[in-house]
């Protein structure tokens, strides 16, 4: 049995209002930390909250004090970094730093709260069920009509082996070496698309878990989810919420 690292990127500054964002992100992050401490993942899992620096860092002391708090399946880890390339910069930094310690990585945004027990194990089992599955996406998979095929938000799970098949160690190390901090949303959208489209380019598949709806339970508030709504998604179990 291996070990999983769930990477949650956090930003305490102003939010882009394109999405249904939390009114109080600190309160939401506190709720997320509580959730991660108490949920049963069904698999040995540590959770790293990565703080991308922002002009407003209210709640920093509280969050830093959560470092090494035990969870049911591991511990909480707190990291800080400049806000370079947003969540996707944080994802690459954490994979680079913890590559030798974990076999699976689950990538997640700070306004996404997954409340289903054992979902980590379920995602791992599904990912391992077919060597062609490169990435198990939490959210709807964009079908490639408007944008290149990719997983919404880049949230989901992959194995270290498959991540390294898609991204060389050199690419991971150099991902944050060129762009400046505080990238505009349009730039971050390109990173989001590329993050999982690279699996497709490498001949691997993007898949949603067959038991769980890729829609968040408050999907009607999210344009991205409504734009990818399918009738069959409503018949599956909802396991997460996004924002308010």
Features of the shown structure:
single chain, 244 residues, alpha/beta, Spore Coat Polysaccharide Biosynthesis Protein SpsA, Chain A, 8 helices, 32% helix, 21% strand
Task: Give the arrangement of secondary structure elements.
Layout: E1 4-11, H1 25-38, E2 45-52, H2 60-64, E3 76-81, H3 86-98, E4 104-109, E5 112-114, H4 119-128, E6 133-137, E7 141-142, E8 150-151, E9 156-159, H5 160-166, H6 169-174, H7 185-201, E10 205-208, H8 223-227, E11 240-242
Parallel strand pairs: 1-2, 1-4, 2-3, 6-10
Antiparallel strand pairs: 4-9, 5-11, 6-9, 7-8
Describe the structure.
- This protein is an alpha/beta fold and 244 residues long.
- It has a single domain, classed as Spore Coat Polysaccharide Biosynthesis Protein SpsA, Chain A (Alpha-Beta Complex).
- 32% of the residues lie in helices and 21% in strands.
- It has 8 helices and 11 strands.
- The chain has helices at residues 25-38, 60-64, 86-98, 119-128, 160-166, 169-174, 185-201, 223-227; strands at 4-11, 45-52, 76-81, 104-109, 112-114, 133-137, 141-142, 150-151, 156-159, 205-208, 240-242.
- The strands form 3 sheets. The protein has a 7-stranded mixed sheet with strand order 3-2-1-4-9-6-10, with helices on both faces. A two-stranded antiparallel sheet has the order 5-11.
- A hairpin with a 7-residue loop joins β7 and β8 (150-151).
- The chain is globular and about 40 Å long.
- It starts with a strand and ends with a strand.
- The model has no long low-confidence stretch (mean pLDDT 92).
Radius of gyration using CA atoms only: 17 Å
Average pLDDT, to the nearest integer? 92
> What spatial form do the alpha-carbon principal axes imply?
globular
The low-confidence runs, each spanning 5 or more residues with pLDDT under 50, are: none
Strand order of the largest sheet: 3-2-1-4-9-6-10
Number of helices: 8
